[in-house]
């Protein structure tokens, strides 16, 4: 065990004790793959604003922000009050309710593509439903996705060039995977096949921007899908309401056929939605024709669709988003954070760079980057940075060192909210400086 690991175990002893209990209950002691962390994950007890507190009482600047769901920070007063009010009225009414109407009207008001809306239980369910609708609408069986873009964990979304264990062969074969940021490869597929129903893309870049994209490429995808009569699905589970109040579609000025939503949509509570063209979404509609409904209607159920607690939190959040301020504030502060962290790396002559879009960021140690004309850093190649970092253990070592300095990164980066102010940004820059000292003592600091 390295000294860094030993210090981590001592400082987060309460989390270690809980993990020893969890390991007897859950595979690897986890309830979500992204929380895998050696030698054990931290266990949080409460959160407020830009911070969360672990079971040992340590206050941590939080860059997970509910996996990107909390644009307004933890425990925003308007969101908390809305949930508390609805909690007293009922958690599950087993009926249509007024909040679902107000919630959908806000989505329709903010999202340019949202002629119709259907709520789901999660972002994964949203992409699953969008793919099903695309197949039903076009009568074609296949979906095109880009390598390194994440669309949830169902079989069709998880298919890749090397299908993971447990993915049905039929699911893998129904999904065509093409390289990211390669319009020529996409054009080749669409020109050579007549069985493609839709192309799905994370418009802000794969894996919440870890595999960056460009505005020109997203426009090329829209042009190619229109040319070949193929539906375009924007997976805006991450980018929705974050890149702009109207999501990536507003940011790029592109109207997709379908859009998948989650995270910020529900104000930190569970849920998701598919929105988009009326003629596609109306495949979910009943026509009072039993024969037609049995043969042509797309079925969609879900016990917690439009759950009133999620609706309450979502309404309170989207009412704030509609002002335009939260998105702009979080993006501005992310720009400042990225600049400050790059200044730390430059001053210390560390090999690596920090990059991001909108209000998220990634710290990419040990790899070459490139600067655009505006001076912003980007990876040299369109591959997940984790491929470069994982063999050296730098992702986990950096996160471990940052936790010891009071900052919790989401893997090698994170999301900002309106609650992250100058104080938290400067503290994060200082934490990175101190964390690099720890890595240097371990002999793990990559130099230029």
UniProtKB/TrEMBL annotation:
InterPro entries: Aminotrans_3, Aminotrans_3_PPA_site, PyrdxlP-dep_Trfase, PyrdxlP-dep_Trfase_major, PyrdxlP-dep_Trfase_small
Key words, A-Z: Aminotransferase, Pyridoxal phosphate, Transferase
Taxonomy, superkingdom: Bacteria
This protein's name: Aspartate aminotransferase family protein
Cofactor(s) of this protein: pyridoxal 5'-phosphate
A molecular function GO annotation: transaminase activity
PANTHER family xrefs: GLUTAMATE-1-SEMIALDEHYDE 2,1-AMINOMUTASE (PTHR43713), GLUTAMATE-1-SEMIALDEHYDE 2,1-AMINOMUTASE 1, CHLOROPLASTIC-RELATED (PTHR43713:SF3)
Family, similarity comment: Belongs to the class-III pyridoxal-phosphate-dependent aminotransferase family.
Family annotation (Pfam families): Aminotran_3 (PF00202)
Keyword Glycosyltransferase belongs to the record: no
CDD domains: OAT_like
């Amino acid at each position: 065990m390295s000294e860094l690991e030993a210090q981590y175990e001592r400082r987060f002893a309460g989390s270690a004790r809980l993990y020893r209990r969890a390991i007897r209950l859950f595979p690897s002691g986890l309830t979500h793959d992204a929380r895998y962390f050696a030698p054990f994950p931290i266990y949080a007890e409460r959160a407020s604003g830009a911070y969360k507190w672990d079971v040992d009482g340590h206050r941590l600047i939080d860059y997970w922000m509910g996996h990107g769901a909390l644009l307004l920070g933890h425990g925003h007063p308007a969101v908390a009050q809305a949930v508390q009010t609805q909690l007293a009225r009922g958690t599950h009414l087993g009926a249509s309710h007024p909040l679902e109407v107000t919630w959908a009207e806000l989505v329709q008001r903010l999202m340019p593509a949202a002629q119709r809306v259907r709520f789901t239980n999660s972002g994964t369910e949203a992409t699953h439903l969008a793919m099903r609708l695309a197949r039903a609408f076009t009568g074609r069986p296949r979906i095109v996705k880009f390598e390194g873009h994440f669309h949830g964990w169902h079989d069709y979304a998880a298919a890749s060039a090397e299908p993971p264990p447990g993915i049905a062969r039929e699911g893998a074969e129904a999904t065509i995977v093409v390289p990211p940021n390669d319009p020529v490869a996409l054009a080749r597929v669409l020109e050579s096949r007549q069985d493609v129903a839709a192309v799905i893309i994370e418009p802000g870049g794969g894996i919440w921007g870890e595999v960056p994209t460009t505005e020109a490429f997203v426009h090329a995808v829209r042009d190619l899908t229109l040319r070949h009569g193929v539906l375009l699905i924007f997976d805006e589970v991450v980018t929705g309401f974050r890149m702009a109040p109207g999501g990536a579609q507003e940011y790029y000025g592109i109207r997709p056929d379908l859009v998948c939503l989650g995270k910020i949509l529900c104000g930190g509570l569970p849920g998701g939605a598919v929105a988009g063209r009326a003629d596609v979404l109306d495949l979910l509609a009943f026509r009072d024709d039993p024969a037609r409904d049995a043969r042509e209607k797309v079925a969609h159920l879900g016990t917690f669709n439009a759950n009133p607690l999620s609706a309450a939190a979502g309404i309170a959040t989207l009412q704030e988003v509609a002002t335009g301020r939260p998105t702009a504030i979080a993006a501005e502060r992310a720009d400042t954070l990225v600049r400050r962290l790059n200044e730390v790396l430059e001053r210390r002559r560390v090999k690596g760079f920090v990059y991001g879009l909108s209000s998220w960021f990634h710290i990419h140690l040990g790899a070459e980057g490139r600067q655009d004309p505006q001076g912003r850093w980007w990876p040299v190649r369109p591959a997940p940075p984790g491929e470069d970092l994982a063999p050296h253990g730098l992702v986990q070592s950096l996160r471990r060192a940052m936790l010891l300095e009071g900052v919790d990164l989401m893997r090698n980066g994170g999301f900002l909210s309106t609650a992250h102010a100058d104080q938290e940004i400067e503290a994060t820059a200082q934490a990175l400086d101190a964390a690099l000292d720890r890595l240097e003592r371990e002999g793990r600091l990559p130099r230029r």
